[in-house]
Amino acid sequence: MTMRSQKQRMLAGELYTADDPELAADNRRISEWMDRYNRTNTLTQAERQALLEEAFGSVGANCNIRPPFHCDYGYNIRLGRGVFLNFNCCILDVVAVTIGDGTQIGPGVQILTADHPRDPAQRRAMLEFGQPIRIGANVWIGAGALILPGVTVGDDAIIGAGSVVTRDVPAGGVAVGNPARLRPPRVAPVV
Predict the structure, then answer these.
(1) DSSP 3-state of 48
(2) Mind telling me the catalytic residues?
(3) If one looks up domain 6-183 in CATH, what number appears?
(4) Which of 36, 75, 81, 107 could link 86 by a cystine bridge, Cβ 3.0 to 4.6 Å?
(5) What is the mean pLDDT of the chain?
(6) CA-to-CA distance for 4 and 175, rounded, in angstroms?
């Protein structure tokens, strides 16, 4: 039986230790990339797009992430076409983060796949794990929202500013508050 590396364990969502040399090298690589990316305020959107394609697992056309931006590894992030993240967003991508076409994410949003064991002995052993996050197409996430490990947000959903999303949000759902709760959507007047 072949022993799995810490990176393989991390990518599988199993308990792993983040101070592993291979993961440290991956983190160093993305830290150097973030140093470059976060100095791109004067670059064109096309130039920033090329940098995103260099670091992320996949990037659709016309994506825009306004710096500063922070992530753990980059290679677990997959963006659809036309995704927009405003200033100061953070994605802890120890496992897959998928963001669908046309999704708009406000400033200061945190998307957090990283999690920690509830067992104190495992935490003392510096173990952690991740749960994937999927955000559908045409989602609007307000400023300062937190999307917690394992959450799926359906297409066309809205997440209110400052909300802490601990559970799945269905397609077309509106979730607000801490913890976020579903509420009926407001219908815009017909003009």
Answers:
(1) helix
(2) 116
(3) 2.160.10.10
(4) 107
(5) 95
(6) 39
Q: Give me the helices (H) in the chain, please.
A: 6-11, 21-37, 45-55, 120-124
Angstrom distance (rounded) from CA 89 to CA 33: 15
Distance CA 84, CA 45 (A): 11
pLDDT tens digit string along 27-82?
Answer: 999 999 999 999 988 888 889 999 999 999 999 999 999 999 999 999 999 999 99
47 exposure class (CB count in 10 Å sphere: 0-12, 13-18, 19+): exposed
187 φ, ψ to 5°?
-95, 125
pTM: 0.93
Q: Is 172 left (phi over 0), alpha (psi -120 to 50) or beta?
A: left
Half-sphere CA count of 127, side-chain side, radius 13 A: 13
